[in-house]
Structures
1.
Amino acid sequence: MSDDTKNQHTTLNVTKAAVSVAGTVAKSTPLSAVGVALDVADVGLSVYDDRKNSTTRNTVTTISATTAGFGGGVAGGLVGATAGTAICPGIGTIVGGIVGGVIGGVGARFGAKKAINKVGDDLEYDIEILVCSKCGEQFECHVYKTGRAKSLCEDCR
Ligand SMILES: [Zn+2]
Protein backbone atom coordinates (compact mmCIF):
# COMPACT_ATOMS: atom_id res chain seq x y z
CA MET A 1 0.00 0.00 0.00
CA SER A 2 1.49 3.39 -0.97
CA ASP A 3 1.68 6.18 1.59
CA ASP A 4 -0.91 8.22 -0.31
CA THR A 5 -3.49 5.44 -0.31
CA LYS A 6 -2.80 4.79 3.36
CA ASN A 7 -3.37 8.46 4.23
CA GLN A 8 -6.64 8.53 2.32
CA HIS A 9 -7.80 5.45 4.18
CA THR A 10 -6.83 6.96 7.51
CA THR A 11 -8.69 10.20 6.74
CA LEU A 12 -11.76 8.28 5.64
CA ASN A 13 -11.73 6.15 8.79
CA VAL A 14 -11.29 9.19 11.05
CA THR A 15 -14.22 10.90 9.30
CA LYS A 16 -16.39 7.81 9.66
CA ALA A 17 -15.49 7.47 13.34
CA ALA A 18 -16.16 11.19 13.92
CA VAL A 19 -19.57 11.01 12.28
CA SER A 20 -20.53 8.05 14.45
CA VAL A 21 -19.16 9.77 17.59
CA ALA A 22 -21.06 12.96 16.70
CA GLY A 23 -24.21 10.90 16.32
CA THR A 24 -23.72 9.20 19.67
CA VAL A 25 -22.84 12.48 21.40
CA ALA A 26 -25.89 14.20 19.93
CA LYS A 27 -28.12 11.37 21.17
CA SER A 28 -26.66 11.04 24.64
CA THR A 29 -25.44 14.47 25.78
CA PRO A 30 -27.33 16.35 28.50
CA LEU A 31 -27.65 19.19 25.96
CA SER A 32 -29.92 17.15 23.72
CA ALA A 33 -31.71 15.72 26.75
CA VAL A 34 -32.43 19.28 27.87
CA GLY A 35 -33.63 20.08 24.36
CA VAL A 36 -36.04 17.15 24.36
CA ALA A 37 -37.22 18.01 27.89
CA LEU A 38 -37.90 21.61 26.80
CA ASP A 39 -39.80 20.36 23.74
CA VAL A 40 -41.92 18.06 25.90
CA ALA A 41 -42.56 20.91 28.35
CA ASP A 42 -43.44 23.21 25.45
CA VAL A 43 -45.96 20.75 24.04
CA GLY A 44 -47.33 20.15 27.53
CA LEU A 45 -47.86 23.89 28.07
CA SER A 46 -49.59 24.18 24.69
CA VAL A 47 -51.94 21.34 25.57
CA TYR A 48 -52.68 23.07 28.88
CA ASP A 49 -53.42 26.39 27.11
CA ASP A 50 -55.65 24.65 24.58
CA ARG A 51 -57.61 22.77 27.25
CA LYS A 52 -58.09 26.00 29.16
CA ASN A 53 -59.27 27.88 26.04
CA SER A 54 -61.09 24.91 24.40
CA THR A 55 -58.88 25.28 21.34
CA THR A 56 -56.35 23.11 19.49
CA ARG A 57 -54.17 25.66 17.75
CA ASN A 58 -51.40 25.91 20.38
CA THR A 59 -50.81 22.17 20.39
CA VAL A 60 -50.89 21.85 16.60
CA THR A 61 -48.49 24.79 16.16
CA THR A 62 -46.02 23.58 18.77
CA ILE A 63 -45.95 19.96 17.60
CA SER A 64 -45.54 21.04 13.96
CA ALA A 65 -42.72 23.44 14.87
CA THR A 66 -41.01 20.83 17.04
CA THR A 67 -41.12 18.31 14.20
CA ALA A 68 -39.69 20.90 11.81
CA GLY A 69 -37.01 21.66 14.42
CA PHE A 70 -35.90 18.02 14.55
CA GLY A 71 -35.69 17.91 10.75
CA GLY A 72 -33.77 21.19 10.67
CA GLY A 73 -31.43 19.91 13.37
CA VAL A 74 -30.54 16.81 11.39
CA ALA A 75 -30.09 18.80 8.16
CA GLY A 76 -28.05 21.47 9.98
CA GLY A 77 -25.94 18.77 11.62
CA LEU A 78 -25.09 17.19 8.27
CA VAL A 79 -24.18 20.56 6.73
CA GLY A 80 -22.10 21.47 9.79
CA ALA A 81 -20.33 18.08 9.83
CA THR A 82 -19.49 18.40 6.13
CA ALA A 83 -18.17 21.96 6.57
CA GLY A 84 -16.27 20.93 9.71
CA THR A 85 -14.71 17.97 7.88
CA ALA A 86 -13.49 20.27 5.12
CA ILE A 87 -11.82 22.55 7.67
CA CYS A 88 -10.46 19.87 9.98
CA PRO A 89 -11.47 16.20 9.67
CA GLY A 90 -12.19 14.58 13.02
CA ILE A 91 -12.64 17.35 15.57
CA GLY A 92 -14.02 19.67 12.88
CA THR A 93 -16.61 17.07 11.92
CA ILE A 94 -17.81 16.68 15.51
CA VAL A 95 -17.84 20.39 16.37
CA GLY A 96 -19.36 21.33 13.00
CA GLY A 97 -22.02 18.65 13.38
CA ILE A 98 -23.07 19.80 16.84
CA VAL A 99 -23.01 23.53 16.04
CA GLY A 100 -24.84 22.96 12.76
CA GLY A 101 -27.40 20.76 14.49
CA VAL A 102 -28.18 23.36 17.16
CA ILE A 103 -28.39 26.26 14.70
CA GLY A 104 -30.41 24.22 12.19
CA GLY A 105 -32.81 23.02 14.87
CA VAL A 106 -33.41 26.41 16.44
CA GLY A 107 -33.66 28.17 13.07
CA ALA A 108 -36.07 25.65 11.55
CA ARG A 109 -38.24 25.66 14.65
CA PHE A 110 -38.39 29.45 14.85
CA GLY A 111 -39.14 29.80 11.13
CA ALA A 112 -41.72 27.01 11.23
CA LYS A 113 -43.58 28.51 14.18
CA LYS A 114 -43.83 31.87 12.39
CA ALA A 115 -44.98 30.22 9.16
CA ILE A 116 -47.53 28.00 10.92
CA ASN A 117 -48.91 30.99 12.84
CA LYS A 118 -49.27 32.92 9.58
CA VAL A 119 -51.24 30.05 8.03
CA GLY A 120 -53.34 29.79 11.21
CA ASP A 121 -54.18 33.50 11.00
CA ASP A 122 -55.08 33.22 7.30
CA LEU A 123 -57.41 30.31 8.07
CA GLU A 124 -58.75 32.12 11.15
CA TYR A 125 -57.85 28.99 13.09
CA ASP A 126 -59.24 29.41 16.63
CA ILE A 127 -59.93 33.08 15.96
CA GLU A 128 -63.51 34.23 16.57
CA ILE A 129 -65.39 37.45 15.95
CA LEU A 130 -66.79 38.55 19.30
CA VAL A 131 -68.68 41.64 20.41
CA CYS A 132 -66.90 43.73 23.02
CA SER A 133 -68.91 43.72 26.23
CA LYS A 134 -67.80 47.29 27.00
CA CYS A 135 -67.96 49.32 23.77
CA GLY A 136 -70.16 46.93 21.72
CA GLU A 137 -67.74 46.85 18.77
CA GLN A 138 -66.93 43.59 16.96
CA PHE A 139 -63.37 42.42 17.26
CA GLU A 140 -61.15 39.45 16.36
CA CYS A 141 -60.59 37.36 19.46
CA HIS A 142 -57.49 35.15 19.37
CA VAL A 143 -59.24 32.48 21.42
CA TYR A 144 -56.18 30.19 21.44
CA LYS A 145 -54.24 32.93 23.27
CA THR A 146 -56.77 34.60 25.55
CA GLY A 147 -59.71 32.19 25.79
CA ARG A 148 -63.33 33.26 25.35
CA ALA A 149 -63.71 34.70 28.84
CA LYS A 150 -62.04 37.98 27.87
CA SER A 151 -64.81 39.48 25.78
CA LEU A 152 -63.23 42.93 25.66
CA CYS A 153 -61.68 44.37 22.49
CA GLU A 154 -58.01 45.42 22.45
CA ASP A 155 -58.94 49.05 23.19
CA CYS A 156 -61.05 48.25 26.24
CA ARG A 157 -58.64 45.79 27.86
ZN1 LIG B 1 -64.26 47.60 23.38
Note: The helical segments are 3-28, 30-53, 57-87, 91-122, 143-146.
2.
Amino acid sequence: MLRSDATGPRPRFARRATLRRSLRLLGSFRFEQTDPARFYGGIAADTADLIADFYRDLTGRDLSGTVIVDVGGGPGYFADEFAAAGARYLPIEPDPTEMHAAGLTVAGAVRGSGMALPIRDDAVDICLSSNVAEHVPQPWVMADEMLRITKPGGLMVLSYTVWLGPFGGHETGPWHYLGGEFAARRYTRRTGKQPKNRFGRSLFAVTAADGLRWARETGGRARILATFPRYHPRWAWWVTRIPGVRELLVSNLVVVAAKPLG
Ligand SMILES: C[S@@+](CC[C@H](N)C(=O)[O-])C[C@H]1O[C@@H](n2cnc3c(N)ncnc32)[C@H](O)[C@@H]1O
Protein backbone atom coordinates (compact mmCIF):
# COMPACT_ATOMS: atom_id res chain seq x y z
CA MET A 1 0.00 0.00 0.00
CA LEU A 2 1.27 3.44 -0.90
CA ARG A 3 1.68 5.98 1.82
CA SER A 4 2.30 9.70 1.87
CA ASP A 5 4.38 9.77 5.01
CA ALA A 6 8.13 9.46 5.14
CA THR A 7 8.14 5.87 6.47
CA GLY A 8 5.93 4.01 3.96
CA PRO A 9 6.74 2.71 0.50
CA ARG A 10 7.21 5.62 -1.87
CA PRO A 11 4.75 6.54 -4.55
CA ARG A 12 6.57 6.56 -7.92
CA PHE A 13 5.81 10.29 -8.17
CA ALA A 14 8.00 10.99 -5.09
CA ARG A 15 11.08 10.55 -7.31
CA ARG A 16 10.04 13.53 -9.39
CA ALA A 17 9.34 15.73 -6.37
CA THR A 18 12.76 17.33 -6.23
CA LEU A 19 13.73 20.81 -5.08
CA ARG A 20 14.53 21.67 -8.69
CA ARG A 21 10.96 20.82 -9.74
CA SER A 22 9.54 22.90 -6.87
CA LEU A 23 11.62 25.92 -7.85
CA ARG A 24 10.67 25.53 -11.51
CA LEU A 25 6.95 25.42 -10.70
CA LEU A 26 7.10 28.27 -8.20
CA GLY A 27 9.06 30.36 -10.72
CA SER A 28 6.33 29.84 -13.31
CA PHE A 29 3.54 31.06 -11.00
CA ARG A 30 4.33 34.70 -11.64
CA PHE A 31 3.41 34.23 -15.32
CA GLU A 32 -0.15 33.06 -14.61
CA GLN A 33 -1.72 36.42 -15.57
CA THR A 34 0.88 37.75 -18.06
CA ASP A 35 1.83 34.60 -19.96
CA PRO A 36 -0.77 31.90 -19.23
CA ALA A 37 0.60 29.57 -21.93
CA ARG A 38 3.97 29.49 -20.19
CA PHE A 39 2.45 28.98 -16.75
CA TYR A 40 -0.10 26.36 -17.82
CA GLY A 41 2.35 24.55 -20.11
CA GLY A 42 4.59 23.77 -17.14
CA ILE A 43 1.80 22.85 -14.78
CA ALA A 44 0.11 20.70 -17.44
CA ALA A 45 3.24 18.60 -18.02
CA ASP A 46 3.75 18.20 -14.29
CA THR A 47 0.11 17.22 -13.72
CA ALA A 48 0.22 14.63 -16.51
CA ASP A 49 3.36 13.12 -14.92
CA LEU A 50 1.66 13.03 -11.52
CA ILE A 51 -1.43 11.29 -12.90
CA ALA A 52 0.62 8.86 -15.01
CA ASP A 53 2.80 7.89 -12.05
CA PHE A 54 -0.09 7.20 -9.68
CA TYR A 55 -2.04 5.37 -12.39
CA ARG A 56 0.98 3.16 -13.02
CA ASP A 57 1.40 2.52 -9.29
CA LEU A 58 -2.25 1.51 -9.13
CA THR A 59 -2.68 -0.52 -12.31
CA GLY A 60 0.79 -1.18 -13.73
CA ARG A 61 -0.33 0.51 -16.96
CA ASP A 62 0.34 3.81 -18.72
CA LEU A 63 -2.36 6.30 -19.70
CA SER A 64 -2.91 5.10 -23.26
CA GLY A 65 -6.57 4.31 -23.90
CA THR A 66 -7.75 5.74 -20.58
CA VAL A 67 -10.62 8.19 -20.22
CA ILE A 68 -9.76 11.15 -17.99
CA VAL A 69 -12.30 13.68 -16.73
CA ASP A 70 -10.83 16.97 -15.52
CA VAL A 71 -13.35 18.72 -13.26
CA GLY A 72 -13.05 22.50 -13.55
CA GLY A 73 -10.68 22.08 -16.46
CA GLY A 74 -11.11 25.70 -17.62
CA PRO A 75 -10.29 26.01 -21.32
CA GLY A 76 -8.49 22.65 -21.32
CA TYR A 77 -4.87 23.68 -20.78
CA PHE A 78 -4.05 20.07 -19.88
CA ALA A 79 -5.55 18.60 -23.06
CA ASP A 80 -2.38 18.36 -25.16
CA GLU A 81 -0.33 16.67 -22.44
CA PHE A 82 -2.93 13.98 -21.81
CA ALA A 83 -3.52 13.50 -25.53
CA ALA A 84 0.23 13.03 -26.00
CA ALA A 85 0.07 10.29 -23.37
CA GLY A 86 -2.66 8.56 -25.41
CA ALA A 87 -5.56 9.39 -23.06
CA ARG A 88 -9.02 10.63 -23.97
CA TYR A 89 -9.23 13.88 -22.01
CA LEU A 90 -12.60 15.48 -21.18
CA PRO A 91 -12.71 18.78 -19.30
CA ILE A 92 -15.91 19.67 -17.43
CA GLU A 93 -16.32 23.36 -16.79
CA PRO A 94 -19.35 25.41 -15.66
CA ASP A 95 -18.20 28.82 -16.88
CA PRO A 96 -18.43 29.42 -20.66
CA THR A 97 -16.06 32.39 -20.38
CA GLU A 98 -13.40 30.13 -18.88
CA MET A 99 -14.07 27.47 -21.50
CA HIS A 100 -13.26 29.91 -24.28
CA ALA A 101 -10.58 31.86 -22.44
CA ALA A 102 -7.54 30.59 -24.28
CA GLY A 103 -8.94 30.02 -27.75
CA LEU A 104 -8.51 26.25 -27.30
CA THR A 105 -10.92 23.77 -28.81
CA VAL A 106 -11.08 20.54 -26.87
CA ALA A 107 -13.32 17.94 -28.47
CA GLY A 108 -15.65 16.48 -25.88
CA ALA A 109 -15.46 19.43 -23.48
CA VAL A 110 -18.62 19.46 -21.37
CA ARG A 111 -20.33 22.32 -19.60
CA GLY A 112 -21.32 21.33 -16.09
CA SER A 113 -20.64 21.71 -12.40
CA GLY A 114 -18.38 19.53 -10.29
CA MET A 115 -21.13 19.43 -7.68
CA ALA A 116 -23.45 17.54 -10.08
CA LEU A 117 -21.30 15.92 -12.73
CA PRO A 118 -23.21 15.12 -15.92
CA ILE A 119 -21.65 11.65 -16.13
CA ARG A 120 -23.01 8.25 -15.10
CA ASP A 121 -21.63 6.21 -12.18
CA ASP A 122 -18.41 4.18 -12.64
CA ALA A 123 -17.68 5.67 -16.07
CA VAL A 124 -14.10 6.93 -16.22
CA ASP A 125 -10.65 5.52 -15.54
CA ILE A 126 -9.36 8.70 -13.93
CA CYS A 127 -11.09 11.72 -12.43
CA LEU A 128 -8.91 14.72 -11.76
CA SER A 129 -9.51 18.16 -10.32
CA SER A 130 -6.76 20.74 -10.06
CA ASN A 131 -7.13 24.04 -8.22
CA VAL A 132 -10.91 24.00 -8.27
CA ALA A 133 -12.19 22.90 -4.83
CA GLU A 134 -11.40 26.31 -3.30
CA HIS A 135 -13.70 27.92 -5.90
CA VAL A 136 -16.67 25.68 -5.11
CA PRO A 137 -19.18 26.28 -2.28
CA GLN A 138 -19.53 22.54 -1.60
CA PRO A 139 -16.11 21.07 -2.40
CA TRP A 140 -16.79 17.75 -0.65
CA VAL A 141 -19.97 17.21 -2.63
CA MET A 142 -17.69 17.66 -5.66
CA ALA A 143 -15.18 15.15 -4.27
CA ASP A 144 -18.00 12.62 -3.73
CA GLU A 145 -19.16 13.23 -7.29
CA MET A 146 -15.64 12.62 -8.59
CA LEU A 147 -15.54 9.31 -6.78
CA ARG A 148 -18.99 8.39 -8.06
CA ILE A 149 -18.04 8.69 -11.75
CA THR A 150 -14.68 6.90 -11.31
CA LYS A 151 -14.68 3.22 -12.33
CA PRO A 152 -13.96 0.60 -9.67
CA GLY A 153 -10.21 0.10 -9.92
CA GLY A 154 -9.82 3.68 -11.19
CA LEU A 155 -7.98 6.70 -9.85
CA MET A 156 -9.20 9.98 -8.41
CA VAL A 157 -6.89 12.93 -7.78
CA LEU A 158 -8.10 16.10 -6.09
CA SER A 159 -5.69 19.00 -5.61
CA TYR A 160 -6.60 22.40 -4.19
CA THR A 161 -5.19 25.59 -2.74
CA VAL A 162 -5.31 25.70 1.05
CA TRP A 163 -6.88 28.89 2.42
CA LEU A 164 -4.23 29.77 5.00
CA GLY A 165 -1.35 29.05 2.64
CA PRO A 166 0.56 31.84 0.89
CA PHE A 167 -1.63 31.62 -2.25
CA GLY A 168 -4.95 31.05 -0.42
CA GLY A 169 -6.18 34.60 -1.01
CA HIS A 170 -5.30 34.46 -4.73
CA GLU A 171 -5.06 38.03 -6.04
CA THR A 172 -6.35 39.41 -2.70
CA GLY A 173 -3.49 37.86 -0.70
CA PRO A 174 -1.77 38.22 1.68
CA TRP A 175 -4.62 40.26 3.12
CA HIS A 176 -6.77 37.12 3.38
CA TYR A 177 -4.88 36.48 6.62
CA LEU A 178 -6.99 39.34 8.01
CA GLY A 179 -10.18 37.77 6.63
CA GLY A 180 -11.50 36.97 3.17
CA GLU A 181 -14.13 39.71 3.18
CA PHE A 182 -11.61 42.31 4.31
CA ALA A 183 -9.17 41.21 1.60
CA ALA A 184 -11.84 41.36 -1.10
CA ARG A 185 -12.98 44.86 -0.10
CA ARG A 186 -9.42 46.09 0.13
CA TYR A 187 -8.71 44.78 -3.38
CA THR A 188 -11.76 46.60 -4.75
CA ARG A 189 -10.78 49.83 -2.98
CA ARG A 190 -7.26 49.67 -4.41
CA THR A 191 -8.04 48.58 -7.97
CA GLY A 192 -11.55 49.87 -8.54
CA LYS A 193 -12.78 46.41 -9.52
CA GLN A 194 -13.97 43.22 -7.88
CA PRO A 195 -11.40 40.45 -7.61
CA LYS A 196 -12.04 37.64 -10.06
CA ASN A 197 -11.76 35.25 -7.13
CA ARG A 198 -14.32 36.88 -4.79
CA PHE A 199 -14.39 35.53 -1.24
CA GLY A 200 -17.76 33.96 -0.45
CA ARG A 201 -18.77 33.77 -4.12
CA SER A 202 -15.99 32.20 -6.15
CA LEU A 203 -13.36 31.70 -3.45
CA PHE A 204 -13.85 29.77 -0.22
CA ALA A 205 -11.81 29.03 2.88
CA VAL A 206 -10.98 25.34 2.37
CA THR A 207 -8.50 23.97 4.88
CA ALA A 208 -6.00 21.13 4.63
CA ALA A 209 -7.83 19.52 7.56
CA ASP A 210 -11.04 19.51 5.47
CA GLY A 211 -9.41 17.45 2.71
CA LEU A 212 -7.77 15.05 5.13
CA ARG A 213 -11.10 14.59 6.94
CA TRP A 214 -12.84 13.81 3.64
CA ALA A 215 -10.10 11.28 2.89
CA ARG A 216 -10.49 9.67 6.32
CA GLU A 217 -14.24 9.53 6.09
CA THR A 218 -14.54 7.99 2.62
CA GLY A 219 -14.65 4.64 4.42
CA GLY A 220 -15.00 1.74 1.99
CA ARG A 221 -15.78 4.03 -0.94
CA ALA A 222 -12.10 4.82 -1.57
CA ARG A 223 -8.63 3.66 -0.65
CA ILE A 224 -6.45 6.69 0.01
CA LEU A 225 -3.11 6.23 -1.74
CA ALA A 226 -1.43 9.48 -0.74
CA THR A 227 -1.96 12.95 0.68
CA PHE A 228 0.90 15.39 0.11
CA PRO A 229 1.73 19.03 -0.66
CA ARG A 230 1.67 19.34 -4.45
CA TYR A 231 4.56 21.71 -5.04
CA HIS A 232 6.92 20.64 -2.23
CA PRO A 233 9.99 18.46 -2.60
CA ARG A 234 9.56 14.96 -1.23
CA TRP A 235 11.62 15.66 1.90
CA ALA A 236 9.08 18.33 2.93
CA TRP A 237 5.96 16.17 2.55
CA TRP A 238 5.92 15.66 6.32
CA VAL A 239 4.28 19.10 6.73
CA THR A 240 0.97 17.46 5.80
CA ARG A 241 1.04 15.47 9.04
CA ILE A 242 1.30 18.38 11.47
CA PRO A 243 -2.01 20.04 12.45
CA GLY A 244 -1.83 23.83 12.31
CA VAL A 245 1.52 23.85 10.53
CA ARG A 246 -0.05 22.19 7.51
CA GLU A 247 -2.59 24.98 7.12
CA LEU A 248 0.23 27.51 6.72
CA LEU A 249 2.79 25.43 4.81
CA VAL A 250 1.06 22.84 2.61
CA SER A 251 -0.17 25.51 0.19
CA ASN A 252 -1.76 22.98 -2.17
CA LEU A 253 -3.02 19.63 -0.90
CA VAL A 254 -3.22 16.59 -3.16
CA VAL A 255 -5.52 13.72 -2.20
CA VAL A 256 -4.99 10.58 -4.28
CA ALA A 257 -7.61 7.85 -4.00
CA ALA A 258 -8.32 4.53 -5.65
CA LYS A 259 -11.90 3.33 -6.05
CA PRO A 260 -12.05 -0.23 -4.77
CA LEU A 261 -13.06 -3.05 -7.13
CA GLY A 262 -16.46 -4.57 -6.57
C1 LIG B 1 -8.12 28.29 -11.01
S1 LIG B 1 -9.07 27.56 -12.26
C2 LIG B 1 -8.27 25.99 -12.43
C3 LIG B 1 -8.15 25.56 -13.86
C4 LIG B 1 -7.37 24.26 -14.07
N1 LIG B 1 -8.07 23.14 -13.48
C5 LIG B 1 -5.97 24.36 -13.53
O1 LIG B 1 -5.55 23.57 -12.69
O2 LIG B 1 -5.23 25.24 -13.96
C6 LIG B 1 -10.56 27.15 -11.40
C7 LIG B 1 -11.63 26.61 -12.33
O3 LIG B 1 -12.70 26.05 -11.55
C8 LIG B 1 -13.89 26.32 -12.23
N2 LIG B 1 -15.05 26.13 -11.35
C9 LIG B 1 -15.66 27.03 -10.56
N3 LIG B 1 -16.75 26.48 -9.97
C10 LIG B 1 -16.82 25.20 -10.40
C11 LIG B 1 -17.72 24.12 -10.17
N4 LIG B 1 -18.80 24.25 -9.38
N5 LIG B 1 -17.49 22.96 -10.80
C12 LIG B 1 -16.42 22.80 -11.60
N6 LIG B 1 -15.54 23.79 -11.86
C13 LIG B 1 -15.73 24.97 -11.27
C14 LIG B 1 -13.69 27.75 -12.68
O4 LIG B 1 -14.63 28.16 -13.65
C15 LIG B 1 -12.26 27.70 -13.20
O5 LIG B 1 -12.19 27.31 -14.54
Note: The two ends are 18 Å apart (CA to CA).
